[in-house]
Amino acid sequence: MFTIDKDELVFAVAAAADMVPQSTPQEQLQNIEIEGADDVLTVRASTGHSWCETRTDIDGDLDKVIVPAHFFEQVVSSMPDGRLKSSTIGKRLDITAEGATSRATIPVLADDKYPRAIPATKEPSVTISSDVLKEGIAKVAWIVDPREIVPSRAGILLEINKGGITFAGCSQQGMSEFAEKAPRKVDASIILPLQFARLIQKHFPARSDIKTTVGVSQGIFANERLTLASVGIEGGFAPYRAIFDKTLDKIKHRIPTNVAALRGAIARKTPFVGRYNGIRLTFDSGMLTVQAGHDALDSTDSIPSSYAGEEIGCLMAIETTQKLLSAFDGENVTIALAGPKDILLFFDDSRDESTSYWSAVTQWSEAHAEERKRRDAEKQQQKEEREYRR
Fold first, then answer.
1. Closest listed residue to residue 358, CA positions, set 162, 173, 167, 192
2. Where is the domain boundary, 49, 72, 107?
3. Residues 87, 190 within the same domain
């Protein structure tokens, strides 16, 4: 039997439950392991390629039990605030609120022998600020497509070396990279699954130190109360980086642009963008024009620009443009163009010498429109087939 504050139990269960899938053919993956020893409650979860372990103080102990993750999380969340008391009675785990009549019972499952302990590693570790990890992931995650089937484009690259720490993400639409330039004594890299990277963002507190171990095939992130680990995604970013490196060498125009003004102009034109159309940015002497239209509708909006050359335009996907600009938190962004049909690069002008952030996106084309039409047609066909089977 043990007692614990409700808030502490909610914390202990939340990260583990977030890692567990809501539904899966392997029922044991939907369970978590709970154990109390030496006045510490340990909660473990695993998906087979990712692991989570939380630790929190308790008064008492508890023999190791296996319980359904999401049901247990719902029960704990529904209990009154204050101290909770828990004990095992036969094949159930009882939770009661001290000084209240609230009581809940959770079934204890048979030990399914599923390994939930985090695999050991001998790789060297470094300490990274949680703020750097959370910001780096946030800056590049927007471009990663959760439905991506190419392994190396389905996650976030984390590189640690003498040059500092680099985060990168890519997709068919482009690439985004954030770097902190503080040198590190470790030389390692890994591609983290997107969902796992989101757990790092969500569950590690701000302004804390994270012991980070990156090996050939596994990454481990830990503080005193939480450890997250994941197997890396096989593949590499080298082919994608080569494309953008070539573009960097060909840049002809660098145009500082006010982020808020550009966001506002695009937001005003968004209702005029057709599903299979992009949004056009046209730079002319002293002016940036945002144009959107489809069928018989057409609309333009202009904002001041420092560009002073000949007219040059580019066509971008509206969704990608909105996500890209939301990742920039400075006042100005530099838009770089190599040519009328080349990749566009966006550099964050608010960064000092300690960090850098840029994103590169391919221009919208008929090929993009045709691909979206094809996907829509497939979804419609699947919907009709499901309705027919009913």
1. 167
2. 107
3. no
Quote the tokens at residue 150. Answer: 């190419």
Residue 170's domain comprises 125-231
C-alpha 190/C-alpha 183 separation (Å) is: 18
Helix H or strand E encompassing 387 = helix 366-389
Whether 243 is covered by a domain: the verdict is no
In the three-class reduction of DSSP (H, G, I as helix; E, B as strand; rest coil), residue 23 is classed as coil
Q: 107, 138, 153 — which closes off a domain? A: 107
The 10 Å CB-count burial string (b at 16+, else e) for 315-353 is bbbbebbbbbbebbeeebbebbbbeeebbbbbbbeeeee
Amino acid code (one letter) for 200 = I
Which two tokens mark 330?
């400075």
DSSP 3-state of 338: coil
Q: Which residues pair with 323 in a beta bridge?
A: none
- CA dist 292 → 142, 179, 314 (Å): 23, 34, 12
Rg (CA), the chain: 25
**What are the pLDDT digits (tens) for 280-325?**
888 888 899 998 865 555 688 999 998 888 888 888 888 888 899 9
Strand partners, 218: 231
